[in-house]
Amino acid sequence: MQEIQVGIADYKVGREPVVLITLGLGSCVGVALYDPRNKIGGLLHVMLPRMEDFGKEGKLAKFADRGIPVLLKEVLKFGADRRLIQAKIAGGAQMFQGTDSKFQLNIGERNIDMVRKTLNNLGIRIIAEDVGGNKGRTMSLDTMTGMVKLRMLGAQVKEI
Fold it and tell me: Which of 48, 93, 105, 115 has the greatest number of beta carbons closer than 10 A?
């Protein structure tokens, strides 16, 4: 089975039999969109919640509010049926603990909130999630089954 790596602030789309995988989800959030009938999926690696909070320029896939609509558009171009698309999300950890609270940006929590809000605004249901905590994750989407696997340091592989 072909494995396609998704970089930070990037996305990829594929049709079965492809596994899309992204590494290093710390405060970043992975967003998997999947059409179970057509077996088409997409995976996005979001770094930040909203583009306008960090300037008005940049790679769209870097931001939840801009990247998710782009991913949806690409999944639909691939032949997915919008009515069937489901989402699974993972990541959004708080990676730096013990820091003075005035310097904490809570990026992980803000990313989770914006991902949920953006998916809701697009009418896409989140059917599973594994978010928060303080450990990084590796996330993969199997376009054959729609299964998302998560690997965390010191833990067994988890399926959502």
Answer: 115
